[in-house]
Specification:
By secondary structure, this protein is of the alpha/beta class. The chain is built from ten helices and seven strands.
């Protein structure tokens, strides 16, 4: 186990363990929390949570395939999940205390739980779309083939950023990293995001699962959360009042962290 507590951007070039770029906090601690950012975002999605958790936990923030800072193109949700499992096998003995994920990161988490039912003791699945949308999927390539050039325009990035309801202090991070995503990678992960489907093996996972979705998200996202909950009757489903897509982890880090700590206390007390 490495020593020292890395924080912020200083970590960006330090890590290439098992061919996985990560940003890590609290590396002197043994209990590992892994948080998987949303599509088009990056590790800073969970920076505030990592800062709050680093004194007690080793927080690992992977950079997903195809995103700014990653050395790997995005192939599929299944491939990214498999690579993360291999990383956990090599670095943390095959399992961690908790994995959380938002949107694309949540879909990858669902796939990790499907591929390895003991990959973590606890999980937080936030806004994972598991009902394929053929119409949306079919429109992605032609739409982005025509409009991709706008991604690098700051005014367009600001418009997209405002639509996402992300807190304003993250705009420069958003613009910097989004503008570095290639057209091929953006199309690839958006197509994967809109075509991912829940697999039967998901119901066999052994983790304590907390499913979260915003009340103001699209109805199909809420239906996806309900489908995940139905597949795991022992899971907890929480619809966050007044929140849009991604607002829980991005805009409410204190509340998000408190709920993580409550889950961890439950696990530790149960195993004591």
């Amino acid at each position: 186990m490495r020593r020292g507590t890395f924080t912020g951007l200083d970590q960006r070039n330090k890590l290439n363990r098992a061919a996985m770029k990560t940003i890590e906090f609290g590396t002197q601690n043994n209990d590992v929390i892994m948080l998987l950012h949303g599509g088009g975002l990056s590790w800073w999605n969970y920076k505030a949570e990592a800062e709050l958790l680093k004194n007690r936990y080793h927080v690992v923030l992977p950079i997903l395939d195809g995103h700014a800072g990653s050395d790997n193109d995005f192939i599929s949700i299944e491939k990214n999940a498999s690579r993360l499992i291999s990383f956990i096998d090599k670095e943390f003995g095959g399992s961690v205390l908790l994995i959380g994920g938002l949107s694309l990161g949540a879909q990858i988490l669902v796939e990790m739980l499907t591929q390895r039912n003991s990959i973590c003791q606890n999980s937080v699945i936030e806004s994972a779309f598991v009902i394929p949308s053929r119409l949306t999927n079919a429109s992605i390539k032609p739409t982005f083939s025509l409009s991709y050039g706008l991604v690098k325009k700051k005014w367009f990035a600001q418009m997209q950023f405002d639509y996402l309801h992300i807190r304003k202090d993250l705009f420069e991070d958003y613009y910097r990293d989004t503008s570095q995503i290639s057209k091929a990678n953006m199309i690839a992960f958006l197509e994967a995001n809109t075509s991912y489907e829940l697999k039967p093996n998901f119901q066999d996972n052994q983790a304590k699962v907390h499913i979260v979705v915003g009340e103001k998200e699209q109805k199909k996202m809420i239906r996806s959360a309900e489908q995940l909950h139905k597949a795991l009757p022992g899971s907890i489903l929480e619809i966050k009042k007044g929140l849009y897509h991604g607002e829980y982890s991005i805009n409410c880090p204190e509340e998000y962290t408190k709920e993580l700590l409550d889950m961890m206390c439950y696990i530790l007390n149960k195993s004591a």
